[in-house]
Amino acid sequence: MDSDRLGSQKLEDLAQYLRSSVRPSDIDLIQYNIKPIKRAAVLVCLFEGDNEDLRVILTKRASSLSTHPGEVALPGGKREEGDANDLETALREAKEEIGLDPSLVHVLGLLEPFVTKAGVMVIPVVGILPDKNAFTPVLNAAEVEVIFDAPLDMFLKDDNRRSEEREWMGDKYLLHFFDFEVDNKKHVIWALTAGILIKAASVLYQQQPEFPERRPKFWSANAADNDNTALAS
């Protein structure tokens, strides 16, 4: 999608800033001190709300799924053999899960990866949806129960946030939970999804969160151990 179709000046300015702030292409595993492990990508899809606020598309995973049932997530999933790169993974998964046509999304680049305790490297792909009205969600009931959107700046604020201290291999960190209600439905955005959105909001707004973040060390690809079994849950 061409930049002249982004819509408002605010989105144009955001796109210009993001192009200079996020990685433009696929992330090379060689630069990280880890062996090639399972890889996934999620789409941080942003659009301008009615109040000119920046919002992000989220889903609630189907309760029938074997992993993380009923949890809030960003559209995305594991990379498949036919995917050319992380961008293709994120866009393919978004289309499969919520019917988002890749041609509607202006992809700007990638944030640095997160590594889960199970040893999956998750690449956040940042994109802009210039025309929200052009997107008609079609939910894959086998994977998604609900689609909704939330203001991105809420992930920098201390309002409606709580945290729990956890420990992994002697490292104490905070697990953040954000409570959000829309259409009389309450959602809890937490763990890796919350961590990615805190990072995305920090980059986009060029601000640090109002709260101490204390990220787990295993989220950083550079900090991951060469022995992938050390990342197992």
UniProtKB/TrEMBL annotation:
<dbReference type="GO" id="GO:0005737">
    <property type="term" value="C:cytoplasm"/>
</dbReference>
<feature type="domain" description="Nudix hydrolase">
    <location>
        <begin position="37"/>
        <end position="193"/>
    </location>
</feature>
<dbReference type="GO" id="GO:0015937">
    <property type="term" value="P:coenzyme A biosynthetic process"/>
</dbReference>
<dbReference type="GO" id="GO:0046872">
    <property type="term" value="F:metal ion binding"/>
</dbReference>
<dbReference type="GO" id="GO:0015938">
    <property type="term" value="P:coenzyme A catabolic process"/>
</dbReference>
<dbReference type="GO" id="GO:0010945">
    <property type="term" value="F:coenzyme A diphosphatase activity"/>
</dbReference>
<dbReference type="GO" id="GO:0006637">
    <property type="term" value="P:acyl-CoA metabolic process"/>
</dbReference>
<keyword id="KW-0460">Magnesium</keyword>
<dbReference type="InterPro" id="IPR045121">
    <property type="entry name" value="CoAse"/>
</dbReference>
<protein>
    <submittedName>
        <fullName>Nudix hydrolase 15, mitochondrial-like</fullName>
    </submittedName>
</protein>
<keyword id="KW-0479">Metal-binding</keyword>
<keyword id="KW-0464">Manganese</keyword>
<dbReference type="InterPro" id="IPR015797">
    <property type="entry name" value="NUDIX_hydrolase-like_dom_sf"/>
</dbReference>
<dbReference type="GO" id="GO:0008893">
    <property type="term" value="F:guanosine-3',5'-bis(diphosphate) 3'-diphosphatase activity"/>
</dbReference>
<dbReference type="Pfam" id="PF00293">
    <property type="entry name" value="NUDIX"/>
</dbReference>
<dbReference type="InterPro" id="IPR000086">
    <property type="entry name" value="NUDIX_hydrolase_dom"/>
</dbReference>
<keyword id="KW-0378">Hydrolase</keyword>
